[in-house]
Every structure is written in structure tokens, then in C-alpha cells.
Amino acid sequence: MAYSIAEIAEALGAEAVGNPTLKVTGAAEPASAGPDQLALAMDPKYAEGLAAGKARAAVLWPGADWQALGLEAAILVPRPRYAMAGLTRLMDKGPEIAPGIHPSAVIDPAAEIGEGAAIGPFVVIGRGAKIGSRARIASHVFIAEEAQIGADALLYAGVRIGARVVIGDRFIAQPGAVIGADGMSFVTPEKSTVEQVRETMGQVEEAARQSWTRIHSLGSVRIGDDVEIGANAAIDRGTIRDTVVGSGTKIDNLVHLAHNVVIGRDCLFAALVGVAGSTRIGDRVVLGGQVGVADNITVGDDVVAGAATKVLSNVPAGRAMLGYPGMKMETHIEVYKALRRLPRLFAQVAALQKAVSKRGESD
Question: How far is CA 98 from CA 18, 101, 132, 175, in A?
């Protein structure tokens, strides 16, 4: 599909200069852009790449001299990454899901399918499930009994939605996401080694045979509007109450939210984040890749945890965290600097000990 510079600028809410009727079929990096592609050079440091490519039009920074760069047209954007969001939204065709219901789909007669929904091959929808209007469901998706999915949802291939899960409007789930699996909750008839360690914070005093008995998950999962779940992410249902994900939250690939977890609005979790059971996380919290959050704690609003941080205790609102164990970001940086100085410090101490020892011998 071809897009005119004027159409793209309007979609971005940006300024178009030069020939607004010039059309492009896609976007590319400046050095590799062809004559029918829109070069993305939204910072002056990328301008040199335009000379190596063949683009006739580009997305540039405000005030750029587009004519001096040899272009026929340009779109000037003040906030590059935000412009990227609009541009990619415009050009992304999304998965190919034919309108209507594919003949191979298995839909329980008691399920409700909204107007304009598109359901792909080998989809299974259980008893009493409700699918919202204009939902698009790719192949091999399973939606269990009494689950509810809002309008304009997009479920990629292989998504699994468990029983009684309730999901809001404009939901997106990438391939392989599982929402509403059993939580990991087990107990032993006698006091387990885990309980011993929690009480003593030391070695296991008396190890004995122990058998694990499942605590079944009677709750489900509730997800708000405009939530996105990454590929192979897993959100467990609650033990008694529901696991909750607030509206606007975006969750990356391979993230795990355990049973009873409550996540606020507009949070952002990068890949491999793990949140243990019954933890509450506030609004607008950002967790970098591989962040781990312990069970039964509270993380306040607007907390930012850098990659691989391990959050082991309550965190007040607005704090920036880093490290293992997680601590204030500025404290962690100082600790890290001190750690790097340790070899030199040890050498200095050894030299001082040697000097003192020699002086003692001379006395």
C-alpha cells in the first residue's frame, strides 16, 4: 500500500514540507532506503545516512534543511519515538484473519460472538464465553468457558484464555500468551523446609520427607481496557480473589504474574519480569528486563526498577530502584563504585600492614 506524505503527516499530527503528494510504500533506515521508502532520520546524527540511500522523502527533526539534504519532501517531528508510534500504527497491516468464522472453528452453542468478529482456523470457544464486537482471533486460540473479551480485541495465534477470565476492550495478546492458568500454590501436611527457613532465616534444622498438596485456584483474572500481553507471557488466576491487571498496562514477552497479583494502570513490564504471588503494584510502574518482585509486598505508584533489579521488600511511591537486593538507584551506583575500588583498597591495606610489620620488627 502507498501513502502520501500528506497522509502520513496528518496521521502523525506533524508538519509536511515539499511535495505532499509524493507517495511511499514503507519506511527504512536512511542508508538503506529506496526511492519509494520513507527514510527515518529524526535526529541530525542520522543525516549522513541519507546521502548513502536513495530516499526522496524522510522524517526529520524540527527545522531541518530538507532541501540541502537532497529531498523532495519531508515530515518534521518534534518527538521522534512518539512519531514512530504513529507511523508504525499507520503502516502495520496486522495479522491476516479473514472476516467471519472459519469452518474449522469449534464454538459452543452457548457462546456469544459479537458483531463483526473474525475467528480463524481451529479456534475453540467454550460454553458461555462472550466475544466482543470486531474482535480478531487468529488460528489455534483457545478461550475457555465463561471467559469474556471486550470489543476490538486482537488475539494472535496460540493464545490461551482460561475459564471466567474477564478482559476489557482493545486487548492485544501476542502468540502463546496464557491467561488464567492455575497459580503455583502448594502446602505440606507438616511444616515444610520452606517454612522453617522463613522462621529461622538459617539452615534447615530437620529435613524430613514432605509431599506437596495443591491449593486449587478458585479465582480468575480480570484485565482492564487497552492492555497488551507479550508472547508466551503467563498470568495465573487467583486462589480465591482474582489476579488483576489495570487498564493501559503493557506486558512484554515471557513475563509471569503469579496468583493474586494486583497490577495498577499504565504500567510497563519488560521481558522476563516475574512478580510473585499476592504482591500489589501501583500505577505507572516500570520494571526493566529480568526484574523480580518478591511475594506479598507492595510497590508504590511511579516506581522505576532498572534491568535485573530484585525487589525484596516494600517500595515507596516514586522511587528509582536498581541492584540485587534492590535499593535506591543512586545508592546502588555508589555501592558499585565502591565494589570496583575494593581490589585497590585491599592492595593498599596489604601494603600498610607490611609497612607496619616492618616498623614493628625494627623497633
Answer: 39, 8, 17, 18
Query: For the segment 204-222, what is each residue's pLDDT rounded down to a tens digit?
Result: 877 677 899 999 999 999 9
Instruction: Round to whole Å and give the CA distance between 229 and 275.
Output: 15
Paired strand residues for 29: none
d(CA 153, CA 171): 5
259 is catalytic: yes
If DSSP codes are grouped into helix, strand and coil, which group holds residue 266? coil
pTM for the complete prediction? Answer: 0.90
Output the nine-digit C-alpha cell for 341.
575500588
Catalytic residue among 102, 216, 259, 332: 259
Task: Encode pLDDT of 273-294 as tens digits.
Answer: 999 999 999 999 999 999 999 9
Say if residue 353 is exposed, middle or buried (CB neighbours under 10 Å; 0-12, 13-18, 19+): exposed
Sheet holding 243-245, edge to edge: 112-113, 130-131, 148-149, 166-167, 221-223, 243-245, 262-263, 280-281, 298-299
DSSP string, 46-114: GHHHHHHS--SEEEE-TT--TTTTT-SEEEE-SSHHHHHHHHHHHH-------SEE-TT-EE-TT-EE-
What is d(CA 61, CA 44) in angstroms, rounded to the nearest whole number? 7
Question: How distant, in Å, are the alpha carbons of 25, 45, 87 from that of 32?
Answer: 14, 16, 18
- Helix 80-91 vs helix 5-12: crossing angle, to nearest 10: 120
The H or E element that residue 118 is part of is strand 118-119
CA distance readout (Å), 5 to 22, 32, 81, 93, 255: 6, 19, 18, 18, 38
Burial of 173-206, coded b for 16+ CB within 10 Å and e otherwise, reads: bbbbbbbbeebebeeeeeebeeebeeeeeeeeee
Grid cell, residue 305, equals: 526498577
